[in-house]
Amino acid sequence: MAVCARLCGVGQSRRCRRRQRQNHDACDCGGGHVSRRDCLERTAKGFPHPQFLADLPPELLVEIFSLIPGTALPNVALVCKKFKQILKTETIWRRRCVEEFGMKDDLRKLEVGGVSSHDLYVKLLHPYRHILGLWQPDIGPYGGLLNVVVDGLFIIGWMYLPPHDPRVEDPMRRRPLFRIHLWESKKATVECMYGHKGPHKGDIQTVKKDEFSTKCNQTDHHRMPGGRQEEFRTWLEEEWGRTLEEIFHEHMQELILMKFIYTSQYDNCLTYRRIYLPPATPSDLLQPGLFKGTYGSHGLEIVMLSFHHKSARATKLTGDPNVPAGQLTLEINLSRPVVLPDLEQLCNIEELSRLVLGIHEEVHREAEQQANHTKEGACGSDSAEDEVDPGPSSTSAHQHDDQPFVLPLGVTARNEVYPRTCRKCFYGTGLIAGHGFTSPERTPGLFVLFDQDRFGFIWLELKSFSLYSRLTDQLAHAHAPNMERFEDMLRNMQSWTS
């Protein structure tokens, strides 16, 4: 009886009676508020006091079941016929669709159109919940960024493409690769959206945990009447926003043609691996996340900026034949701030190189000393690290003081429109390699923080400048559960393309 009293508020327990005396207007009914008058009327009419959960009024059970995760509701339906019948109530499934999958559409209108919230949850959202979020397609060195979202009666896989080179601050472009829909309460249908003839039959298979693959069953829909030449011209306009004749650099033309030949062979039959957005901490230099950056003849690429104690790392989500997707393109030493010279000296690349290379040699010297101490069995590595780490206080003086910035003469930039003031600068290294990721090496450079949404990197050896701008798209189901899981993902990404 005490359990019943806690559920409905009209039982014999002292706690319930004391709560009723304190509240003359209503009593707590677990899933909502029933007026005290209604409770008294029920008692006066001989309404039986519930002995079990099944004895509660249906409207109260609907409210209770609406709070239970949808994955557990099938087990609830097995308890008894009454529960099974109540679980057909659309209110329950409507609430599960909204709370678990963030559906913003008016589900009542969808129900009028012949698709129930129950069918939407059971036949579409729940079976394909494991593919929602961010993914990296296995397209050799080129990689990519796929975002799978719920959109009304559809689950859509959007491929995110950088803006046309060199407009790094323009918004991302999106292209649908596949969709899964539910019509008239039938079985969910997968459609390939690749090509130029509209949606056609496709398939999705779960390979293993955090991995799935797509397959097009009608690849003839990807072909164009004009053959490969027309397909290339269309792809070039979408990918680069220009014709081949407008791209005068011969090496750049070769890279573009190579990418078309390589990527078009997949015909949207791809394998995807899950990726996460990096976790944030209050001590981070700026909000971690995804950025688009300029990479010379390779165009714009997407990187993921994350923070790891005393370092920041930018990992490629899209790549090129030299440095493929998944590799660590930038590594920034946050314990090595660089104080820029005045503008006149900064214009001289030799002066900037002298500053950065001095730090580079010092870092290598200390790393060798630490390695020697380790070989000798010394245990003072922690103290040695503390000696070279100036700590947060050493750079806090420049936390909000913007300083003038200009690129040194002789440093090339794809985008001449870059900020003329910066907040902080740090020593870092960038990864360069030959074609096919041959002879990779980390070369010194300067990390330049402009603001919370933009940073840059000067590659001293290449005498080039990359500008990075934040992706501002809202990405649901994409945050890492914890830092350990995120770092495991980073290690796996490097192994995918190594």
Automatic annotation (TrEMBL):
Show the GO cellular component annotation of the record.
Answer: SCF ubiquitin ligase complex
Q: Which InterPro entries match?
A: F-box-like_dom_sf, F-box_dom, FBXO31/39
Q: Which superkingdom?
A: Eukaryota
Q: Where is this region: Disordered?
A: 366-405
**Organism of this sequence:** Takifugu rubripes (Japanese pufferfish)
Q: What is this protein called?
A: F-box protein 31
Cell inner membrane: is it a keyword of this entry? Answer: no
Q: Name one GO biological process term.
A: protein ubiquitination
Query: Transmembrane stretches, by residue range?
Result: none
Give the metabolic or biological pathway: Protein modification; protein ubiquitination
UniProt keyword list = Ubl conjugation pathway
Protein family (similarity comment): Belongs to the FBXO31 family.
- Biased composition, Basic and acidic residues: where in the chain? 366-376
Domain (F-box) spans: 50-96
